[in-house]
Amino acid sequence: MNYLLHILIMISIYAILSISLNLPVGYAGLLSLAQAAFYGIGAYAVTLFMMQAGINFFAAVVLSVILSAILSVFVSYPSIRLKGDYFILASLAFQIIVFTILYNWIDLTRGPYGIPGIPRPELFGIVFDSLPKFFALSGTIAIGILLVAKKFYSSPFGLVLKAIREDELSAISIGKNVRKFKVLAFAISGGLAAISGALYASYVTYIDPTSFTLDESIFILSIVMVGGSGNLRGPVTGTLLMILLPEGLRFLGIPDSVAPNLRQIIYALVLILLMRFRPQGMAGEYRLD
Amino acid sequence: MIVQFIVNGIVSGSLIAVMAIGFWFIYRTTNIFHIAHGAVYTASGYIFYSLYVSKGYSLLLSLPASLISGAVLGLAIYFTVYRPLEKKNASTGIKFISSLATYILIVNVIALIYGNETKILSEGLSASISFWDIILTKIQIYQVISFLVLLVLSYLFVKGTKAGRAIRAIGDNSRLFKALGLNERWVKGMVFCIGSAIAGLASILTGLDVGIDPHIGMFAILNAVVAVIIGGIKRLEGVALGAFLIGILQNLVIWQFSARWESVVTFLVLVVVLLYKSGGLFVVKTRVEEL
């Protein structure tokens, strides 16, 4: 039961992450390798707000979301005009810079030692400290975000993004400020990723920079590419598949020494085959071509 | 002191340049952002380890055998992964993701076979030579010489041979190249062979100094990519200059601050160049008719 709850909590955290990345990838056509950076910024910001400033978890989440969204504007505003490979490269550069800062700014983040003893979320005297309670929290937040995202995609804002994705020139010609919409999409994406980070930090109660590496960014992007983007089914399918797959391997009795490598090999093969035969992913709407 | 760090910068710049020249050949011709080049680098290093250290073959046999294996691997990646995507006219994004996935695939296969720990390629400390107050190890001198030889050969190849002109022609306008009835597939395959063999050379030169582990390829390819972008992809000389700029800059950072901030500075330079001079720093103005 505990095992199942743990998996469900991880699914809710990664579902939020993949929905957040769905916005720039599936709606603005921008592949970003910086999502783990915003995830990490969220995790560290919430932790520091709670532990250094003594702010309640939920207020700290709001502050972290704002912080992460502002930082994401700093990244996206100048780099959004870069095309194709160059944009991916700029986001990769940001990812590496953030990781290096988290790792080396020892005074603030304790660097490689990590921060232990992060308090659990608390609201009106209820502490979300047990697995069922935490899942109730993370599941509610994930489903809430899912519902809002669904509404959002068919809102005027979502439709403009879709229009930009399908035909940028036409969108410009009817007077839409393409850059503004893309930057906003990025800001929302950065904010959502920060929520995931906050949940992760208070769930595991320990963070260190190795959870927010380039590899993690690649993993999050893989979820969206495998599941597909441009709608909600895509990222959700991707999350379920990519989180449950390694658990499946565990039941097959693959020894622990080879399991991590084998898992990566399977992810990579799935990704290569999908890119070749089904570039919109398993359940996505947007084709990256 | 500063002279020593600049000399160190030139040595590491040479290593970055070797890797960057290999990447450049491929990127300039095919426009594929070949991140899996980093995996070819790692794989060649491990093949060299198997032949030279495990089996104890001579350097004269192990070195060419590893470079050829690297070339074959690069060629295999081109024909199994990229070629089908090119036929479908896939976007740069799709090719980038496929390349990244290929990188992950190969690196994890290597880790499964050889384990995750560092393998040493040459036993004992390399002999060092000092003049004035600069100290250089023997392998470092080989690294710089290899770079110089490679640069001259590549330059002569690109400027002076028919195949070299074909490389530039495809990179500038691959449709026109095909329309003229020339064999694009053959040239691209050749470029993957050359570039991948050079990646093998970079890997062995580095490995003989500091050893290899399955994950060094990412570091090597990222440095090379930064050098190529900073230098400007049009010209080979720019790439070499970009590599030296990074190498010297990284060593100055190590000297003034600490090695921990090396990658921040490298990637900040990359971002600044991407945003303000995305054609590269060392681009000579091209005449209109060259465009």
Structural notes for this entry:
The complex is a heterodimer of chains A (289) and B (291). By secondary structure, chain A is mainly alpha-helical. Chain A has one domain. Chain A is 74% helix and 1% strand. In chain A, strands 1-2 form a two-stranded antiparallel ribbon. In chain A, β1 and β2 form a beta hairpin. In chain A, α1 packs parallel to α6. The longest helix of chain A is centred in the first third of the chain and has 27 residues. Chain A is globular, with a radius of gyration of 19 Å. The N and C termini of chain A lie far apart (43 Å). In chain A, 49% of the residues are buried. Chain B has 291 residues and is mainly α. Chain B has one domain: ABC transporter involved in vitamin B12 uptake, BtuC (Orthogonal Bundle). Chain B has a two-stranded antiparallel sheet with strand order 1-2. In chain B, α2 crosses α8 and α3 packs antiparallel against α4. Chain B is globular. Chain B starts with a helix and ends in a 15-residue tail after the last helix. Classes of the chains: A mainly alpha (289), B mainly alpha (291). Chains A and B meet through α4, α10 and α12 of A and α3, α4, α9 and α11 of B.
Fold topology:
The complex is a heterodimer of chains A (289) and B (291).
Chain A (H helix, E strand, L loop, with lengths): L1 H27 L6 H19 L3 H23 L4 H21 L1 H4 L12 E2 L2 E2 L3 H23 L2 H11 L1 H6 L4 H27 L9 H14 L5 H19 L7 H19 L12
Antiparallel strand pairs in A: 1-2
Helix pairs in contact in A: 1-6, 1-9, 1-10, 1-11, 2-3, 2-4, 2-9, 3-9, 7-9, 10-11, 11-12
Chain B lengths: L1 H29 L6 H18 L4 H29 L4 H23 L13 E4 L2 E4 H23 L1 H11 L1 H6 L4 H27 L5 H16 L4 H21 L5 H15 L15
Antiparallel strand pairs in B: 1-2
Can you tag this structure with a few keywords?
heterodimer, A: 289 residues, mainly alpha, two-stranded antiparallel sheet, 74% helix, 1% strand, B: 291 residues, ABC transporter involved in vitamin B12 uptake, BtuC, two-stranded antiparallel ribbon, 11 helices
